[in-house]
Design a protein that fits this description.
Two copies of one chain form a homodimer. The first copy, chain A, is α/β, with parallel strands linked by helices and about 350 residues long. In chain A, about 45% of the residues lie in helices and about 20% in strands.
Chain lengths: ~350, ~350
C-alpha cells in the first residue's frame, strides 16, 4: 500500500507515516460551551487527540469559539448545509472543518470554505457518506455500487479542491455497511495519496457498534489503510476513544496502557480465572505504561505465554507461578497471586 | 484467495464454500456431565454450531460420552499430552478431536489418533499455538518469526497426516498477538487448501478480547480466510458465540437476528437517542429474523439511512418519522416512536 502524504491539523500530523491519530466527537449541546469543554477535556484525558464538535447553526459560533480557545487538543467543526458556518468556525480558530460537499450544495460554497481554510492555515476533511451522496452517485449506490459511488464522490471533490491549489485535506468514505466501508477505503487508498480518516458510520450501540468498528477499521489498518480513526458508537464518546485505542493496540500499531492476555477458561481450568483476570484488568487500568500482562489458567499454553509476556501468572490447582520478564519470580497460593503479580510489576 | 477443500465434522460441512461455522468451548468441569450438557445446550441455543469440550484425564471419559450422546450439536474433544485420551474421545463418539501434535509428543501417538479418527469417521483439528510450539519452531519464534513458525508447524503436521492418507482435518495457527495471527493465517491460506479454524488465542476479557477477536478474525474473514471461527474470551462462552455472530453479521457473511444501525449522537441530536437505540435493541433481541433497523437522530444522514434500512426511525426535535421498506409510514411524537416502529415491524 503506498504511503499517504502528510497534512497538519492543528499541531497534529496526519498521514505520511505519522502515528494513527485517535479522534472522537462531542455529543453535548455545542451552545453549552462549559459542558462541551468538559467533554473535550474528558475525551483528551482518555487519549483523544482530535475532537470534532458540530456547529448546527450560527447561534453556536460564540460557544464554539470559546471551546476552541480553551481546548487541550485541536478542534474540528462539523458543518452541514451552510458554507458560512464553516467559514465562521475557521475564523473562530477551528483546526479544521469537516464538510460533506454533498450537503453544502453549490460549488461556490465549497470554494469559500477552501479559501477560508487556506487563509487560516486549517485543514479540511472531505467526508462522503453513503447516507448523503449527491444525486447522481446515489443512483450508482442504488444500483448496488455504493463503494464505487463513495470513492467517486470523494475523488471528485478531491480534484475540485486540488484544482484550487488546496492540499491540506483528508478524505473519508464511511458507510454503515462494514464490507462497503472496507471496499471503499481500499479502492480509495489504491487511487489516491490523500490521508484517510477511517471509520464505520452509525455502527450501532456500544456492544454491536464496537464489533462492527473493530472489524471494519481493523481490517483496513491491518493493511496500512487509515491515518486517523473515529469509532462511532451510540453512547458516551469516551467509549469511542477506548475502543479506538484497543483497536490500535490489538494491531500493535500504538499502545496506551497495558495489554492483557488471558485465556478462555475451559474444563482444564482449576482456578477462578475470570475473577483473577478481572481483578488484574481493574488494577492495570490506571497504568499508562505499555506492558503486556498474561493471566493464564492452563497448563497447556499457560507457562509459555506467561514467560513471553512482560509479566504473567500461570495458575493451576490452588496455586500459581508469577513470571517477570521471562523468569519465575514467585510461586504462591491462588489468593495471593494478584498481589504477587503487582509486587513484581511495581517492584 | 483459493477456496479451501471441504471436510465433515459430524453433520456440519466446514470449508469449500460452506457457511462459516460458529464454535465455542465449554468451561464447566467436564466430569460434571449435567453441567457440561446444560452449557452445550445454552451455547447451541445462542447459535453455537460446534462445541469443544476438554478431556483432561481418563476420569472424564464417561461423562464426555454422556455429553456427546445427548448434545444437540457435534462435540469436539480437546486433548493434550496423551494420545490415548484422544482415542477414547473418538470411541466415545466425538465428532472430532482437537490436537496439538506439539503436546502429544511422539509421532506414534499422533498416528494412533489419526487411525482412530479414520475408523470412526471423525475429523481432527491440528492446532498449533504460539504458546506450545515444538522446540525447533520455538527457536524460530524466539528469533521474532512467530507467524512463520506457526505456519511451518501446521504444514509439517499436515504433511504427516496426509502421508498417512488422512484428509478430514482442519488447521489452526492461533497467537495471542493479532498481527501474528493475521500474518500466520494469510500465509497458511496461500500455501494450503486445508480448511482453517480461525481465532485469536487468549484474547482477554469480554471487552478487550472482543475487540482483539473482531480485529483479527474480521481482517481474515474480510479476505475470505477462515472456515470456522472461535472467539476466545475469559468469561462466559455464550458471549463468545454472540461476538462471533456479530463479526459474521458485520461482514455480511451470515446473520442471526436483526442488524441495528444507529448514529453516534452529536451536538445536532435533539432527542434522547441513546435511550431510543437501547430500547429498540432490547425489543429486537428476541427476533431471529435478519432485519436491518436504523435508529437515527440526525437530519444529515438520518432520513437516507432510515429509508435504506428495512425499518427505520429518523428523529429530531421532539418527533420523528418511521420508515418501512423505504417509505414513510408514520410521523409521531418522540415518546411514541418505538411503538410506531414495532407496529411497522410486526405489522
Amino acid at each position: 500500500m503506498p504511503s499517504s502524504r502528510q497534512i497538519h491539523v492543528g499541531n497534529l500530523l496526519i498521514g505520511g507515516g505519522a502515528p494513527v491519530v485517535v479522534q472522537s466527537m462531542t455529543n453535548t449541546t455545542t451552545g453549552d460551551a462549559a459542558a462541551t469543554l468538559d467533554q473535550v477535556r474528558e475525551l483528551a484525558a482518555e487519549g483523544c487527540e482530535l475532537v470534532r464538535v458540530s456547529l448546527p447553526t450560527g447561534d453556536e459560533v460564540e460557544a464554539f469559539a470559546e471551546v476552541v480557545s480553551h481546548a487541550p487538543v485541536p478542534i474540528v467543526a462539523d458543518v452541514h448545509f451552510d458554507w458560512r458556518l464553516a467559514v465562521a468556525a475557521l475564523e473562530a480558530g477551528a483546526a479544521g472543518v469537516r464538510i460533506n460537499p454533498g450537503t453544502i450544495g453549490a460549488e461556490r460554497g465549497v470554494l469559500e470554505i477552501v479559501r477560508a481554510a487556506a487563509a487560516c492555515g486549517a485543514a479540511l476533511r472531505i467526508g462522503v457518506n453513503a447516507g448523503s451522496l449527491p444525486k447522481d452517485l446515489r443512483a450508482l449506490a442504488d444500483r448496488g455500487e455504493t463503494a464505487a459511488a463513495l470513492v467517486e464522490g470523494a475523488l471528485r471533490y478531491a480534484s475540485l479542491v486540488e484544482e484550487w491549489g488546496f492540499l491540506e485535506y483528508k478524505l473519508s468514505v464511511k458507510s454503515s455497511s462494514v464490507p462497503e466501508t472496507i471496499a471503499a477505503y481500499r479502492a480509495l487508498a489504491e487511487r489516491s495519496e490523500v490521508p484517510l480518516h477511517v471509520g464505520v458510520t452509525e455502527a450501532g450501540t456500544a456492544w454491536g457498534g464496537t464489533i462492527k468498528s473493530a472489524v471494519g477499521i481493523g481490517a483496513l489498518l491491518a493493511d496500512g489503510v487509515g491515518d486517523t480513526v473515529r469509532v462511532s458508537l451510540t453512547g458516551d464518546p469516551v467509549e469511542e476513544v477506548r475502543v479506538a485505542w484497543q483497536i490500535l493496540a490489538a494491531l500493535e500499531l500504538r499502545r496506551r496502557g497495558p495489554n492483557l492476555i488471558s485465556c478462555p477458561t475451559c474444563g482444564r481450568t482449576e482456578v477462578d480465572l475470570v475473577a483473577l483476570a478481572a481483578e488484574v484488568e481493574r488494577r492495570l487500568q490506571p497504568l499508562s505504561v505499555p506492558l503486556t500482562v498474561a493471566v493464564m489458567g492452563c497448563r497447556v499454553n499457560g507457562p509459555e505465554e506467561a514467560r513471553h509476556a512482560d509479566f504473567g501468572i500461570a495458575a493451576g490447582s490452588g496455586e500459581g507461578v508469577v513470571f517477570a520478564h521471562g523468569r519465575k519470580v514467585a510461586t504462591v497460593p491462588e489468593d495471593e497471586l494478584v498481589e504477587a503479580l503487582f509486587r513484581a510489576i511495581e517492584g
